[in-house]
Design goal:
heterodimer; A: 188 residues; mainly alpha; 10 helices; B: five-stranded antiparallel β-sheet; four-stranded antiparallel β-sheet; 4 helices
Chain lengths: 188, 285
């Protein structure tokens, strides 16, 4: 169980509380680094994105608006945005060189205690919800979220009309919204 | 409203693109007349949280202790300075009440030490203030960079939209030339108007246009068969710059396009010299 709400941590970080930043880091670094690694497929880049994300949190905690999203979602979308920017600017040759230089085994520690149990349960629900989507809906969602492709790019890649891509994306999101209603209410 | 060629997750400051959600929402949801609880707003918020939940499907990859320390230290430094020890209390707790020579020498020596240490503290504070100034300047640079990235992203979106238009099937093209009947001839000037197959979306690019004289602006006109004309807006151009204009709506029945030089703020109808004119639409794709 969290002893301090995420929003309270953000307010403390806005007051330059380094301890609060460390606490928030320990709660979300695993999630954010896995997201960046999924997008960039490089541990070194994923760690850099993690640093950039929390540097942005440190500098812009005062701008966080709880009316727009939960802290968790705010962090996820920042990390995703930075990862996609890195992905889009990366050249194929540079990617090959960096992969050769950095792709060495890195030791990861798993989160311990009650939070790990909660994360595992949420992961299970997400996996089940994603598995429940039609393949074509899951595909467009993953291409958009993890691949950073525009809807026109997705339409071209999947050889489907643009309108169909938009509809599939929205339907997928709405199905997940229903399947994950409990998690959403927990975050709101 | 312009289209945004993002994918719904590229909103500002880690939010979903509201415009995209609204546009995606149109064919599936009628707008409910509930003034206190707009459905689109609630939907956006909940779908934003859905986006935030997606990565929870992944196996967590927490950094190891060394990486954690490295990252946090790079953000907040080596931690806040501890309370400054009250060095002024050294030797001052039990001052002699009688000016004994040894005491005087001791006090003098201690005074010298204190002055030295104050000097060190002063130098430390100066260094601290410089470091704070440098960090503030760096933060300002980062903020500016973020604004520039945001602006570049918008430019990229606009460029994508324009490319999609000019390469779309059924696009019509009208070449604009100096019509030779004007006093403000700019022979190096040339324009291209691209109109989408819906005859609504259009994109205009003009090269070689010289900056207007003081107090004047260029004005775009759409002409009709009956001789009337509707303004497409006023604009200015910098030296050597290309002009790009675009809109989602074009006056129906337009048969020609022109650019004239008008008084600043524009005119109700073309009154100034014509700079460019075109009336031949050609379908190229």
């Amino acid at each position: 169980m969290k002893t301090v709400d995420d929003k309270v941590l953000i307010r403390a970080i806005a007051d330059r509380d380094a301890g609060a930043l460390a606490e928030l880091f320990d709660r979300y670094a695993g999630l954010l680094q896995s997201l960046s690694h999924k997008i960039l497929d490089d541990f070194g880049d994923a760690e850099e994105i993690l640093q950039e994300t929390f540097l942005q949190v440190w500098n812009q905690a005062g701008r966080y608006d709880p009316g727009k999203s939960s802290v968790s979602t705010w962090l996820v979308l920042i990390a995703r945005s930075r990862s996609i920017d890195r992905l889009r600017s990366r050249r194929v040759k540079l990617r090959t060189a960096k992969a050769a230089h950095r792709e060495s085994p890195v030791t990861h520690t798993s989160p311990v205690g009650t939070r790990n149990v909660l994360l595992q349960e949420r992961r299970k629900r997400l996996s089940e919800a994603m598995a429940g989507l039609p393949a074509e809906q899951r595909e467009v969602l993953e291409l958009a979220f993890y691949g950073g492709l525009t809807q026109s790019d997705i339409a071209e890649r999947t050889k489907t009309p643009l309108g169909t891509v938009k509809t599939r994306t929205l339907l997928a999101m709405k199905k997940l919204r229903i399947a994950l209603q409990d998690d959403i209410e927990e975050l709101l | 409203m312009k289209r945004h060629e993002d994918n719904g997750f590229d909103g500002v400051e880690g939010r979903l693109s509201v415009e995209l959600i609204e546009r995606l929402n149109e064919p599936l949801y009628p707008i409910a007349a509930v003034p206190d609880e707009p459905p689109v707003g609630n939907l956006v918020r909940e779908l934003t949280e859905v986006a935030g939940l997606l990565p929870y499907e992944l196996e967590a990859l927490p950094p190891d202790a060394a990486a954690r320390e490295r990252i946090l230290r790079s953000i907040v430094g080596s931690g806040t300075a501890g309370p400054v020890s009250d060095r002024t209390g050294v030797g001052g707790g039990d001052r002699s009440r009688v000016a004994h020579p040894w005491s005087l020498r001791l006090v003098a020596a201690l005074a010298l030490v204190l002055v030295g240490m104050s000097g060190w503290q002063y130098a430390d504070r100066q260094r601290q203030e410089r470091a704070i100034e440098q960090l503030a300047a760096r933060l300002s640079d980062i903020d500016r960079d973020e604004v520039e990235v945001g602006e570049m992203r918008q430019q990229l979106q606009r460029a994508r939209e324009n490319l999609a238009l000019v390469s779309s099937r059924g696009v019509q093209v009208c070449s604009l030339h100096s019509d030779g009947t004007v006093t403000e001839t700019q022979p190096a000037t040339h324009g291209m108007l691209f109109v989408a197959s819906d005859l609504q979306r259009w994109y205009l690019t003009v090269e070689g246009l010289a900056p207007c004289p003081q107090g004047r602006q260029y004005q775009l006109w759409f002409h009709f068969a009956d001789g009337g004309a509707v303004s497409g807006g006023v604009f200015e151009v910098g030296p050597g710059k290309q002009v790009e204009l675009t809109s989602d709506s074009m006056p129906r029945g337009s048969v020609a396009v022109s650019i004239t030089m008008e008084p600043a703020g524009g005119s109700a109808s073309p009154s100034g010299p014509s700079v460019l004119f075109g009336d031949q639409m050609v379908q190229i794709l």
